[in-house]
Amino acid sequence: MGTSEDKSIFSSYVKKEGLYDEVFDENGGVKSGYQKLLDLYGTRSIDDYVSLNNKAKSSFFNQGITFQVYGNKKSQEKIFPFDLFPRIITSEEWEIIEKGAIQRNIALNHFLWDVYHDKKIVKDKVVPIELLSSSPNYLHQMMNVDPPNKIYNHISGTDIIKHSDGNYYVLEDNIRCPSGVSYVICNRTALKRALFGVFNHYKTHSVTDYAENLLHLLETAKPHGVDSPVTVVITPGMFNSAYYEHSYLAKAMGVELVEGRDLFVENDFVYMKTTQGPVRVDVVYRRIDDLFLDPMEFNPDSTLGVPGIFAAYRKGNVTLANAPGTGVADDKAIYTYMPDIIKYYLNEEPILKNVHTYHCSRPKELQYVLDNIKDLVIKPVDEAGGYGISIGNRLTKDEIERVKSEVKANPRKYVAQPIMSLSVHPTYIDQKESFEQRHVDLRTFTVLGKDEQFVLKGGLTRVALKEGNLIVNSSQGGGSKDTWVLKQ
Amino acid sequence: MLYEYEIDYDTRNSYEKGLNEAFWQFLIIPEENDTQELTYWHFENDLDENNSVSENGLGFKTVQVRSKKVLDHIKFNAHFKLTKKEVNPFDFDLPLDIDEERKLVDSLDFRVDYEPYLRNTRFTQLLEEHKSIYAFDSKKSIFENLTDLNHWTYDHLYFKTGVTDVNTNLDEIIENRHGVCQDFTHLFCAIAKHHGVPARYVSGYLHQGHGFFGDSQMHAWAEAFVPNVGWVGFDPTNNVLANQNHIKVCHGKDYTDCAPLKGVVYTLGENETEYSVSVKAAQQQ
After folding, report:
1. Are residues B104 and B70 in the same domain?
2. In sequence order, which residues have a C-beta less than 8 Å from that of residue A296 and are 6 or more positions away?
3. Is residue B148 located within the same domain as residue B229?
4. Strands A283-286 and A319-321
5. Which residues of A touch B63 (CB under 8 A)?
6. Contacting A residues, span 422-451, partner chain B, CB-CB under 8 Å
7. Which residue among A123, A264, A314 sits closest to B109, beta carbon to beta carbon?
8. What digits encode the pLDDT tens for the residues A231-280?
9. From the list A129, A268, A307, which residue is nearest B23 (CB)?
């Protein structure tokens, strides 16, 4: 491993039994793709690394790439911790991930069309009706509405892990307003600034083409009769945790970033207020949840949305991406039916595996969950960002009882999965001034357009920075790594 | 027989601290259907702003008014002329086989097709202890059960204004046993749905002069789905089936889908809403 100096950067790296290390194999050898990188990093001392890491961090602060954490009384602005040691995905592995992500998201789109039209999958007893009717995201207002090009989930974030068995599994499908793509691009920029030389030795796919592909595919869904559409990004505002990303994407696509109050609706058309007068808006990449989108139709107290925008959408005068009502498929209970959903609509075997899931709403499975809670992860079906997750083997006795009674009181609200051993990746730990194994996952970004799809070749590798921790969400103290997809 | 109606809807909303931007949406236009035909409509507001006709999420016509002026009130008037056919709510054959009818209602296809109107909603959610408050008679047809439920609701609640408001939940209404047309309707819908019969909230106008309850404001009643017949209107506030005196505007899962006025106003102070409705039978042919 690089030089034999005591202070070489991997000199004190410890490989724990039973963990799947993405860089080193069981015999201490280096896995394909990483040798060159280790040679390059190995020529540096840990002190060099520390100073480079600090430089990269300050560049994040200086660029204002921060996020907010909810739940505390005071919300805090933090930088997303970044690690300079990248993750490498070979072209062969990437092909599986990309095909699998497209397959899943196309199947989800079929599912959404079906549950808002003929509901065949329910009548054929593949998915129970109760799962839909109990979901606040199953919008009555979207029944028999035909979104442009029949696309609902224009933008999806598929969370994938590599299990200790070496296979990729999907953990979650995020199709409401998935965020994180801006970090992918910023991570690449930061790594290039700090360690430009390493890129000369690898043929890595670019990630900076995301915005142009996003804009192009969004505009394939422009309303009828519009030649060159006006697209905007709508944000809930600067207090939203992903505000940096909203502004980044608008800037990178070359479109306006707006808030609800910057738009208005007249005669079922949407206009943007500008210094030169109203400008008609045709495509809205909305980063506002359904229930806040239009106070005339959904939450009447919402001041984030645009009154009347849903009526304009229903008439086909403006495109909203993702379509309202898409959230019904972004539900951890629906997730468990994904293998069936893929087979039902595409008549294909799922390319990416699902983690086995127990539905607490089914009495037998509920009993299993209560009896085996120590070996399971309990997740609320409708929370995002890693909130409300309990990991059985980390709970105290009291906590176990509390979780059990909560699950018993609200079985529909919870699903459980075996504790998956996420793969680990060497990660620089500030406090220890050395590299240690940390669990990682991968959020991939898929965009569906008219007859074409785009998956960003790369993705957000999220790192659980606390030792042994499995929850990688940024709101739970996770960090991230640049992710390289190698060209063939 | 045809009935001709003239309907006026007047409202005045005033805002203590004033506004400089607002958006209002009125859900007050009578629906066009087999028994109703709108022959004239006219909208007016005193802000000199456009009255634009749009549609809500369930496809019912709305009127939208948007203003960017500094103002402290809005006055809005809608005037309609409408012809309504005589409605005989009993004009159909009762099912021959009550078991068959029940089987249909319990079938998966039926429950999927009518899912939105079988859903629990905020205002039609029965608490566990209230689920047995009214039982259906398995020897009677669904229509007969619904007619009985209509009587029962009328008997069970006392019509009283000012004790409930648009935020009152069903459990309070059941406990206190009084309310207005909207509360009667929610209770009827909740029980029908609990027994597997799709039910929906209807908002509309009631022809005045018959001594009916709820006739100087917008009225609410229910529609329930009777197999092989279709949606039938029940007015539990007045213990009748909906007929030519009931002029429908829209339906929805509960009041939330049917609020006659929704608005977004940016103001800190109090606001006050007044409105009145008048329904006149112009002439009868």
Report:
1. no
2. A307, A308, A310, A311, B23, B25, B56, B62, B262, B264
3. yes
4. parallel
5. none
6. none
7. A123
8. 999 999 988 888 999 999 999 999 999 999 999 999 999 999 999 999 99
9. A307
